[in-house]
Amino acid sequence: MKTSRLWAWITFIVGAAYFLVPLLATFEFSLRIRRGTYSLDAYANVLSDPSFRASFTYSVVIGLFTIVVGVLIIVPTAYFVRLRMPALRPFVEFITLLPLVIPAIILVFGYIRLYNSTSILPFTGSAIGTDILLTLAYVTLALPYMYRAVDTGLRTIDVRTLTEAATILGANQAEILLRIILPNILIAVLSGAFLTFAIVIGEFTIASLLNRPAFGPYLQLVGANRAYEPAALAIISFIITWGAMSMIQLLSRFAPKTVARPD
Amino acid sequence: MSSNMEDASSLATKSGPVSTGPALAPTPIARRGFSLPIPAGLFSVGPFIIFSVMFLLLPTLYLIGGAFFDAEGHLTLKNIIALGSPQILGAYSISLRVSAASAILGMLIGLGLTLALIRGGLPSGVRSAVMTFSGVASNFAGVPLAFAFIATVGRLGLVTVVLKTVFGFDIYSAGFNLLSFWGLTLTYLYFQIPLMILIVAPAIDGLKKEWGEAASTLGATRWQFWRYIGLPVLWPNLLGTLSLLFANSFGAIATAYALTGSSLNIVPILLYAQIRGDVLHDQGLGAALALGMVLITGVANVIYLVFRARAERWLK
């Protein structure tokens, strides 16, 4: 028993080293911009760079739209499948898993072929059209995570009784979804939203191939042209991802733990 | 146990005992005296279906269908045959090897870490810290991950420099190169191992204490426990996760692209360069490349789904 615990600690420490050394090394590297002394100049350079602000803001806005569109598409679907058409569930689950099977680069290549400026739906013909296409592409990427988060949330509330009660009180479908269901699964939806945000904020492939000025392509550009700023950006990105994941952890403390009704 | 998976928000999050049962018998639901009218249902599911057809199914099918047509729109196998060129076969070969290596190593190392964490008697605080970190690290992929590894084991990276100046060992003259098979594998492990930990931890929790007690009462050694009970129960889960990790790195491009530009010849980068119009200049060939990728990740995921279904039998 003693030796197995020793091995457990050794395994853990070796593993921890593999994960922490790159973070430390990146942080140390990001401080080295001035010869012979440590400084935060790389961070100052990054944060004062107008393209950083512009691309970061752009990605945040796209991320927010992605979350809103994702919620609008997924919450009614998950609700209806759970309440009325459980037979559809395997089909919907299969569809929501597809973005894990189809690499992002395939999706965007398909979009470019299908929605180019000469097609019936020329999304890529204008900047705003491409922004919309980028948002919808990100909704696709977020589908597996968002659907599972929402479905988990729905499992913890009694959807049927809530719907019946609201109907008796005279609520229509939209009111039920918006004022009864959504507030009850808000924590699950927010978890999905933060995960979506973490995935979308630094996404490179789709944004780059659609030629949008997003944060991911900006990161790549800085990486190709600068020495120390990329390290600072890696640390900033890590903190953003950490922040999004911490929010999910924090939210899960408020989430109901029990299944309201076995289904 | 299941709630842990949910917390992890991982894609392994299963939706519990999936209710295919009630689907077969809709009458009891209707008999409850209340039902949502179908038109309202169409209104709810309609946008989802239109969305997934327009932005998931149609683009993919249109693209991979294009692999069978030439520029004039005639049916042809020319594009598929063109995949046999040395450059493209080489790209598939290195992509498959990097994905396989990072998946197998990610699975083994992740399993070892999870076992140490859950069954090795480490304090519970360590466990929750590792789970949180895994959630972050499994999402810390893409361009910033490449930066981190350049700053660590790149030519001027901290580890490279310390090994050289303190220990007199130059990893680059010893044959290591970040822009190579092993460099890429080492980098990919940074998100593969945490993903493995997130997926496999609930499975290891599912190994009931009683099984170990029963085995040791019957005189089984620790080795025999794993050989005859632990591994056979975990096996479907491990193989399934392996295929998921494989698909995860096979489609990845941002990390590799930021590490190497388009100099490393892996399939997603080749396809990226083709879309940007840097090389090839052949739409049909690009479509054929895409078809190959979808086939490979598709097969990997079918294996995952099949094994996951088998794994769930034991982990209720």
Q: At CATH's second level, what is the architecture of chain B?
A: Orthogonal Bundle
CATH superfamily of chain B: MetI-like
In angstroms, what is the radius of gyration of chain B? 24 Å
What name is given to the CATH topology of chain A? MetI-like fold
Total discrete domains of chain A: 1
The largest contact between protein chains, plus residue counts on each side, is: A-B, 108 and 102 residues
**Residue share in β-strands of chain B:** under 5%
Helix run count of chain B = 15
What's the assembly state of these chains? Answer: heterodimer
- SS-based structural class of chain B? mainly alpha
Helix content of chain B: over 70%
User: How many beta-strand segments of chain B?
Assistant: 0
Number of helices of chain A: 12
Features:
heterodimer; A: 263 residues; mainly alpha; 78% helix; B: mainly alpha; MetI-like fold; 15 helices; disordered N terminus
Write the layout of secondary structure elements.
The complex is a heterodimer of chains A (263) and B (316).
Chain A: H1 2-30, H2 41-48, H3 50-83, H4 89-101, H5 104-114, H6 127-155, H7 159-168, H8 173-184, H9 186-201, H10 205-209, H11 215-225, H12 229-254
Chain B: H1 2-8, H2 20-24, H3 27-31, H4 38-65, H5 78-82, H6 86-119, H7 124-137, H8 143-153, H9 158-167, H10 181-205, H11 209-217, H12 222-250, H13 254-260, H14 267-276, H15 283-312
Helix pairs in contact in B: 1-10, 6-10, 6-12, 7-10, 8-13, 10-12, 11-12, 12-15, 14-15
